[in-house]
Every structure is written in C-alpha cells, then in structure tokens.
Amino acid sequence: MPMEPPPDLASLSLTDIARLLAEKRLPPVENWNPAHCGDSDMRIARDGTWFHQGSPIGREAMVRLFSTILRRESDGSYVLVTPVEKLSIEVEDAPFVAVELKTEGEGRTRSLAFRLNTGDLVAAGPDNALILRETPDGPHPYLHVRAGLDALIARSVYYELMNLALDESADPIGLWSNGAFFALDGSA
Fold first, then answer.
1. CATH class belonging to 94-181
2. 3-class secondary-structure state, position 12
3. Which end of the chain, N or C, is less surrounded by CB atoms within 10 Å?
C-alpha cells in the first residue's frame, strides 16, 4: 500500500492541521522490543537527508516510511524498529528538519504549525515545545516531534519565527502557540 503524499501546508487551516494530526496513527514502536539485530548502514545528515550505504535515499515515500519506525533509545542512540528487528541508525543532529511554518492568530491566541522534511505536520504547543539548544557552534532552534525525536528548525523558518516575535514585542522575545509560551532568545 503506497503512502499518501504529504499535504500542502499553505492550503490547510490550523483547524485542518489539528484534524489531520488527530487522525494520524504511527506504528507503536515504543511497544516493540526485539533484540538488536545490527546496523542499518543508514545515516540522517544534519540537513535532513537520509543516506543508505553512503548514497542519498531519493524516494521520498521510502524516507517517510522509515521515519515512522524511527525511535530514540534511552541511551540517546537511534534505531529503526519493527516487531522483529532493531537496527541502529546514525543521526548527525536531529532526525527531522522543520522546513515550513504556518501561523494563525497573534499573541496568546497564536497557533504555529510546521511541516517537516518528511512531510509530517507538527503543531507547537505543550506537547511539542520549541526550544533553543546550545551546540558547539552556537544555539540552534528545535521543535519536539515525538518521544525523544526533535526537528532542527531550518534557518529560514527560524527567521520567520523571530520576525513574528519581534513584531509582537514580547519580553522575553518569544511566541505563544496553542496555549504555551516559547522564548526564542535563549532566556528560558
């Protein structure tokens, strides 16, 4: 059964996005605990490109499928897991990249939604926090996706967020989304 193409974020309202998120069902990877079977020989680069045996995976549907069985282990490593096997996968930074932003409302009534490089949609809020994380090359913005999996927010998307925050003149600089406030200047 082929995977459906990801929806176009620009054509969706945040109500549509909330409905799609409520309908989405991911495999229960947190319940699967097979013995570790080895290495997948796969890597997710910092820019979100998936590689197998050193070559980029060109089929977007294949990347989307693999992303649904990705899990972060308690030791911080990443695995691709099914009911019968568990294979390690290297992740250079975050397994996803937030590549597009949709916003509705302003101030405390604002809602933010992001499209990931895999086509998935994530609405920022209490369960999906926006955070700045200090890295060796400076602070980087991330969005919590699910169960220990984050998305690096693409630079252009972060600039959009900062412009919105600066226009609202909040102190500290940040934005509300779905009832939660997220500082974007590293103060929280």
1. mainly beta
2. coil
3. N
Neighbours of 47 (CB within 10 A): 11
Q: What is the rounded CA–CA span in Å between residue 28 and residue 63?
A: 18
Pairing of strands 130-135, 121-123: unpaired
C-alpha closest to that of 101 among 2, 4, 183, 12: 12
The H-assigned helical ranges of the chain are 14-23, 60-68, 155-168
Torsion over CA: 48, 45, 57, 89 (sign): negative
The Cα 98–Cα 143 span in angstroms is 8
188 with 174: CB under 8 angstroms? yes
pLDDT tens, 102-140?
A: 999 999 999 999 999 998 999 999 999 999 998 888 889
pLDDT, tens digit (0-9, with 9 covering 90-100), for 129-180? 999 998 888 889 999 999 999 999 999 999 999 999 999 887 889 999 999 9
Sign of CA dihedral 55, 80, 77, 187: positive
SS3 sequence of 137-185: CEEEEEEEEECCEEEEECHHHHHHHHHHHHHHCCCCCEEEECCEEEECC
> Tokens standing for 135?
């890295």
Identity of the amino acid at 152: L
pTM of the predicted protein model: 0.85
Cis omega before residue 5 (within 30°)? no
